[in-house]
UniProtKB/TrEMBL annotation:
Positions annotated as active site in the UniProt record: K205 (proton donor)
GO MF assignments: homoserine dehydrogenase activity; metal ion binding; NADP binding
Organismal lineage: Bacteria, Pseudomonadati, Pseudomonadota, Gammaproteobacteria, Thiohalomonadales
Organism the protein comes from: Thiohalophilus thiocyanatoxydans
Name the UniProt record assigns to this protein: Homoserine dehydrogenase
Pathway: Amino-acid biosynthesis; L-threonine biosynthesis; L-threonine from L-aspartate: step 3/5; Amino-acid biosynthesis; L-methionine biosynthesis via de novo pathway; L-homoserine from L-aspartate: step 3/3
Sequence positions that bind L-homoserine: E190
Transmembrane domains' residue ranges: none
PROSITE patterns: ACT, HOMOSER_DHGENASE
GO-annotated biological processes: methionine biosynthetic process; threonine biosynthetic process
Keyword terms, alphabetized: Amino-acid biosynthesis, Metal-binding, Methionine biosynthesis, NAD, NADP, Oxidoreductase, Threonine biosynthesis
Length: 437
């Protein structure tokens, strides 16, 4: 059989990795797919730039339209990123009846509903395994492997750059900016690294995971998003003293009232496997009613790990090119006419435990006042430590771990505590999840 012809948009980290993996593993890929997969054309912004891949045998162009409109190309691989030009190109490719493979989570999280509807109409596939947790086949695991379950919740470390930064800061005492620069050099970071640091990238990915887990539309705007830029080495050390690790976590859970959808730094008991996922590695813990907890671990970013997922999608497309569109795996795991309208819970209604750190004047009565404010709101305390003021300071660090409470109550309590004369500055609040499986 003729090889499937694919056109590539973007020859950067993931594009270069995809060319390399396809070339190196061509023979095995053909044995799996039933036919070869060849990138015949590729669009790059600058044709003279040094690349990580050999482009021999690929017709290069600076105009992505040459690829999208080429009638011989059956699959368009979008690896440019962003949701401007990339969206136009993907919509055009679909319009022309081409299948699409993409690693672009921003695009899917923000415009996936529209893109999948267009693809459905045209009977083409839009595959996006590389968009979530890089090389970990998490989309496939949830959409196909766990299709017999009611998924109850899932939680993941889904930004490699952020986890790399937190790990290096903790293990080597390195500075935030310095580690971020290294992550950029290694090809882990987004074009705009604030997406990694402020949790936006993780929110894109969690939006996608939540949809395929619960059969709800993609709702990026409803995702509560907090990044890691305010985490200090101090908090990391205190958390460890209490037996926890701080991880940047995406968590989505089905409740009677709606779906929790939130991304924020989280204290996790150090004995949990997921608390020990370090560096650029990602992990997603999925709780199904039938299977129980399952954990998926692997490289969340980088050229070849991500290419591993892109190429797997290419193999999927090659396999189904001849099959009936109605019988393919649906984009969001559930049939398009069976998507539910379960609401997303407001963050104020979420219930979780908390780590609080505050700077208190070192005098009698302050702790009693803090515990009274918490007690008045039925917030019970699980642990408390007070650190003597360091030399030259008269403020003690007070660290509290609370039991589970509604976020709105905690907001009230924090407001009251911050208003106390003997408490200085803001209260640091990090949510705690036991992730008990
Ligand atoms: N780097 C990773 O580890 C990783 C992992 C998973 C997903 N992703 C996603 O993959 C996509 C690509 O990321 P990347 O890290 O490879 O980025 P990159 O910046 O290394 O590559 C993007 C390439 O697209 C090219 N490009 C931009 N505009 C273009 C145009 N008009 N025509 C042709 N080429 C154009 C750029 O010149 C660049 O070479 C993004 O959506 C990103 O979120 C990246
Ligand atoms: N910037 C992303 C790339 C993988 O999606 C990360 O660091 O996880
Ligand atoms: Na993946």
């Amino acid at each position: 059989m003729e090889p499937v012809k694919a056109g590539l948009l973007g020859l950067g980290t993931v594009g270069g990795g995809t060319v390399n993996v396809l070339r190196r593993n061509a023979e095995e890929i053909e044995r799996r797919a039933g036919r070869g997969i060849r990138i015949t054309h590729a669009a790059a912004r600058d044709l003279d730039k040094p690349r990580i891949c050999d482009t021999t045998g690929i017709t290069l162009t600076t105009d992505p339209q040459d690829v999208v409109s080429n009638p011989d190309i059956q699959i368009v691989i979008e690896l440019i990123g962003g949701d401007g030009l990339a969206k136009d190109l993907v919509m055009q490719a679909i319009e022309q009846g081409k299948h699409v493979v993409t690693a672009n989570k921003a695009l899917i999280a923000k415009h996936g509903n529209e893109i999948f509807a267009a693809a459905q109409k045209k009977g083409v596939m839009v595959a996006f395994e590389a968009a979530v947790a890089g090389g970990i086949p998490i989309i496939k695991a949830i959409r196909e492997g766990l299709a017999g379950n009611q998924i109850q919740w899932l939680a993941g470390i889904i930004n490699g750059t952020g986890n790399f930064i937190l790990t290096e800061m903790r293990d080597k005492g390195r500075e935030f900016e310095d580690v971020l620069k290294e992550a950029q050099e290694l090809g882990y970071a987004e074009a705009d690294p604030t997406f990694d640091v402020e949790g936006i990238d993780a929110a894109h990915k969690l939006t996608i995971l939540s949809s395929i887990a619960f059969g709800i539309p993609l709702q990026f705007e409803a995702t509560y998003t907090e990044g890691i830029s305010n985490i200090t080495r101090e908090d990391v050390a205190y958390a460890e003293e209490l037996g926890y690790r701080i991880k940047h976590l995406g968590l989505t859970r089905r409740t009677d009232k709606g779906v929790e959808l939130r991304v924020h730094p989280t204290l996790i008991p150090e004995r949990r496997l997921i608390a020990n996922v370090d560096g650029v590695m990602n992990a997603v813990l999925v709780m199904g009613d039938a299977v129980g907890p399952t954990l998926y671990y692997g490289a969340g970013a980088g050229d070849e790990p991500t290419a591993s997922a892109v190429v797997a999608d290419l193999v999927d497309v090659a396999r189904v090119l001849t099959s009936d569109p109605e019988n393919r795996v649906p984009h969001l795991a559930f049939q398009p006419d069976a998507i539910s309208d379960l609401p997303i819970l407001d963050m104020e209604a979420v219930e979780t435990a908390y780590y609080l750190r505050m700077q208190a004047e070192d005098k009698p009565g302050v702790l009693a006042e803090v515990t009274r404010i918490l007690g008045d709101r039925d917030i019970s305390i699980e642990a408390i430590i007070q650190k003597e003021p360091t030399e030259g300071s008269d403020k003690a660090n007070v660290i509290l771990l609370t039991h589970v409470v509604r976020e709105s109550k905690m907001n009230e309590a924090i407001e009251k505590i911050e208003a106390m004369k003997s408490i200085h500055g803001d209260v640091t609040r990090i949510r705690v999840e036991s992730l008990k499986a």
